[in-house]
Design a protein that fits this description.
Elements lengths: L1 H6 L16 H11 L10 H40 L2 H24 L6 H26 L2 H20 L4 H20 L6 H58 L9 H18 L3 E8 L2 H8 L1 H17 L7 E6 L2 E7 L3 H18 L14 E8 L8 H17 L4 E4 L8 E5 L1
Parallel strand pairs: 4-5
Antiparallel strand pairs: 1-3, 1-4, 2-3, 5-6
Helix pairs in contact: 2-8, 3-4, 4-5, 5-6, 5-7, 6-7, 6-8, 7-8, 10-11
């Protein structure tokens, strides 16, 4: 049936889209996850791979942009320190400040293209640790008021990264833990700060960072749930499109023979007609009718009649060009064949070949007055290359008129339409 419908596809109306096959395991996992509470959603396996592939471009773009801005701010900060601070202080800040831009640029380059997750995660965490350490050491080396200030800036840098980086929770927690560990370690090493004050400050900032991590986690969960809804909706849209395509096909197919029905043939005829007139091609039409078909139905039953229609449809299709010609069951026992680009001689040859093939198949029709076997009468009409002012309906009437003469003159024959003659030319008489 697929090969049959290929011949009569109407490019302007039938969708050619091909939806990728859905993985049943992925579909089942999507449905399972959507039944859970949002906070219980966990991506694993193929779902996680699809999600990471979906968000990677945006995540990578954000990380690159953040790193570039850190590099730019590092250069600006270094320049301002050199201009505004006392030389002794600014010189102590040069070394840690100078390493920030190259580290940030290196991480940005790593995130230029996808790499193994473990590699990108490790390099991101290592880069963040070095940047946070460098920010902290800027103030630690300068001492005094810069000590506490640089540690606060380091935590601010860490918090901004946690908020905007759409990375796995494990990576986020690691960055947060590194930032707090650095803060606590350097505060404990601060000679101007007591132990209790260092611990209290760390706990205070830990609360803020914890809240930030939770917020980031909630944002990720919402993004993941939105992704799941998108997967489900995409699958449903695909299924709906497939159903619509099938319905559209069924609306244009004869359910018994699998050929185009009358509606689809008329649409295809208009399409071919327009193309042919633009190119001034010949267009030939065959109107085929099974002889004494009513007698077959009455004597052998409708089941045998249906089998006859299916076999005749198959034979007609075997004798036309699969990539150019159009075949339809036009009604009852009638078939219409459209042969673009064929001359009258070529169309008569095809029609005769179809007629002979049906007769040679030997399908029984015991009560027929024509033959003991099924036979066809065929009318042929051709629109020449000169582009006569004929409509598709007129060409069809001409083919039908030729068929009428074939039936009246004894059946089981091919007759070509001749407008100037009262009796049409008989191409074959059995």
């Amino acid at each position: 049936m697929e090969n049959q419908t290929k011949q009569i596809r109407k490019p302007s109306t039938l969708s050619d889209r091909a939806a990728p096959a859905e993985d049943p395991a992925v579909t089942a996992e999507v449905e399972r996850l959507l039944t859970l509470r949002t906070r219980d959603i966990r991506f694993r396996g193929e779902i996680n791979r699809l999600y990471q592939a979906r968000i990677w471009p945006q995540t990578a773009k954000i990380i690159r942009a953040w790193m570039i801005w850190v590099a730019i701010l590092g250069v600006i900060t270094l320049a301002l320190n050199m201009l505004l601070l006392p030389p002794a202080v600014s010189l102590s800040m040069i070394m840690p400040n100078a390493v920030i831009p190259p580290i940030a640029i290196a991480v940005a380059l790593v995130w230029q293209r996808p790499r193994p997750p473990w590699l990108q995660g490790s390099l991101l965490i290592a880069g963040m640790f070095l940047i946070l350490l460098a920010v902290a050491l800027v103030g630690v080396r300068a001492g005094g008021e810069f000590y506490e200030r640089s540690l606060n800036i380091m935590l601010f840098v860490a918090i901004t990264a946690i908020i905007i980086f759409g990375i796995p929770l494990a990576w986020t927690v690691t960055i947060a833990a590194l930032a707090l560990s650095l803060y606590l370690f350097l505060q404990l090493a601060n000679p101007a700060l007591e132990l209790g004050s260092a611990v209290a400050a760390t706990l205070f900032f830990a609360t803020g960072i914890f809240a930030t991590v939770v917020a980031r986690r909630n944002m990720t969960l919402l993004a993941q749930k939105t992704f799941l809804f998108g997967l489900r909706d995409r699958r449903r849209v695909t299924e709906l499109a497939d159903v619509n395509d099938r319905l559209e096909r069924l609306a244009r197919l004869d359910p018994l023979t699998g050929l185009a029905n009358r509606r689809w043939m008329e649409e295809s005829l208009s399409h071919v007609w327009g193309d042919g007139h633009r190119r001034r091609d010949r267009i030939a039409m065959l109107m085929c009718d099974i002889d004494e078909f009513k007698k077959l139905n009455d004597h052998l039953g409708h089941a045998e009649g249906d089998r006859c229609l299916v076999e005749v449809a198959r034979i007609i299709q075997q004798n036309v060009r699969s990539n150019a010609d159009h075949v339809a069951r036009y009604g009852g026992e009638e078939f219409l064949v459209l042969l673009p680009g064929m001359s009258e001689e070529e169309a008569l040859f095809v029609a005769e070949r179809i007629r002979e093939s049906v007769e040679a198949a030997g399908f029984p029709n015991p009560t027929s007055r024509v033959s003991r076997f099924i036979t066809l009468s065929i009318g042929v009409a051709v629109l020449g290359p000169a582009g006569e002012a004929l409509s598709p309906e007129q060409l069809q009437r001409n083919a039908d008129a030729a068929l009428y003469v074939a039936k009246q003159s004894g059946r089981n024959r091919v007759v070509a339409y001749r407008p100037a003659s009262p009796d049409l030319r008989t191409a074959h008489t059995a």
